[in-house]
Structures are given as C-alpha cells and as structure tokens.
From TrEMBL:
Keywords: 2Fe-2S, Iron, Iron-sulfur, Metal-binding, Oxidoreductase. It holds the Pfam family Fer2. InterPro entries: 2Fe-2S-bd, 2Fe-2S-bd_dom_sf, 2Fe-2S_ferredoxin-like_sf, 2Fe-2S_ferredoxin-type, 2Fe2S_fd_BS, Beta-grasp_dom_sf, Diverse_Oxidoreductases. PANTHER family: BLR6218 PROTEIN, OXIDOREDUCTASE WITH IRON-SULFUR SUBUNIT. It comes from Pseudomonas retamae. This is (2Fe-2S)-binding protein.
Amino acid sequence: MELRINQKTVQVDADADTPLLWVLRDDLGMTGTKYGCGLAQCGACSVLVDGNVVRSCVTPVAGVVGRDITTIEAIESDEVGKRVVATWVELQVAQCGYCQSGQVMAATALLKHNPAPSDAQIEAAMVNLCRCGTYNAIHAAVHELAGKRDA
Ligand code: FES
Ligand code: FES
C-alpha cells in the first residue's frame, strides 16, 4: 500500500492490520517514534495524522492510507514543531528522552490547534506518560510556547 509520510510517498508491503508503529520502525527504519506500552496508554508512539495526534501502536496501517502522516523525523519542517523542539532544547525538558518524541508530537498538535492554550487545556492535552517525571518541564515548555513566559 501507499502511504504519505513526512510529505513523501512511500510504498509498504504490510498486512492491513499491522500497527503503523511497526511499519514506521521496522519497514521504514524510522525509529524516532518509540514503543512503550503497545496499548494506547503511554503516548510514546505518537505521530500526527492529518494534524491530529494519534497513537501509532494501535493504528492499523490500512487506516492511514491517503492521509498525511508526520513523524518526529520531520516535525521541525513544521513551523510550530520547530518552535516546540527549540523550546524543548532551550528549557532542557528531556531526561532519558525515550518519551520525548511523543511529547513533542502532542505539544505540536495542541499548539497547531490552539496557539494559546490555558493551563487547563495544556493539562488536558499533555497526557503522555514519562517515567523520568519531566511533567513540570513539559508543562513549563508548553506554557512558554503559549506565550505565557511571565505567568
Ligand atoms: S506505545 Fe503506543 S501508547 Fe504506548
Ligand atoms: S524523559 Fe525519560 S521517559 Fe520521559
């Protein structure tokens, strides 16, 4: 089947119900998207599909044919994604980093839909798990990106 990933068209040979995560990682070698729980619980596998954050570990590849998939490998080609990554670096959000590609995808999706989210909206959107406990740093980074530097 034919997929549109990071503005390129790629051909993949996979069963229709194969999770998108495994197509990305195993078939296409795009290992920036991580496997955590495999149960739609942690968000490590988050990618954007038509601008919305999606958990690729439970998304059958057949369901994203013809849709616009963006992974962490290309997130900096998006203007908002580029700002998110720059702020993540500036505020040194990551610890081990394992969950962070998913966190960046979630933050980018939030800010593309709502450039100035309230604290409650940030809390509601940034629900990916982080075993290192970077939640305060993540919140601070999204807060900064929402233009609330002094709040
Ligand atoms: S690996 Fe997909 S949500 Fe945890
Ligand atoms: S930075 Fe280590 S799991 Fe989140």
